[in-house]
Design goal:
Layout: E1 9-14, H1 18-21, E2 22-32, H2 36-43, E3 47-48, E4 53-57, E5 60-64, E6 67-68, E7 85-88, H3 91-104, E8 107-116, E9 119-129, H4 132-156
Antiparallel strand pairs: 1-8, 2-7, 2-9, 3-6, 4-5, 5-7, 8-9
Amino acid sequence: MKDTSADDVKVVATNRKARHLYTIVESIEAGIELKGTEVKSLRASQVNFLDSYAVIESGQAYVVNLHIAPYEKAARDNHDPMRRRRLLLHRAEIRRLFVKIEQRGLTLIPLAIYFDRGHAKLELGLGRGRKTHDRREAIREREEKRDMERQQRRHGGDR
């Protein structure tokens, strides 16, 4: 029998491109409303974040364009892979996010999807889009930092 501890978290997939395209200001954990075949596909890591984002409409939060592949072993009861999925957030949290999105021009981006104690969770990032020159600058800074660390390792042992 498997030993499942209280802090058992299994990361299914991460949106690596999101941190490149956006400056993440804040991250939020949200539950996600799924059908049975979607859960089975998620457990098999059959998810794609390409062009996915979250919206708030009529007091509800939804994730749009999150592709969860159809479950192969399901015949007629399969789900639509691109359907809008409702996010499970408290009403006050939805209101707070809506105000930030409207006032500051931020975007809700899915960053990761994972299972926390058996429940599917989606990590949302409240982010501001980066311009091309900002992306290049971030890459340059990252490479400079990496080079400096390399130099320190190389010359640190001489003393």
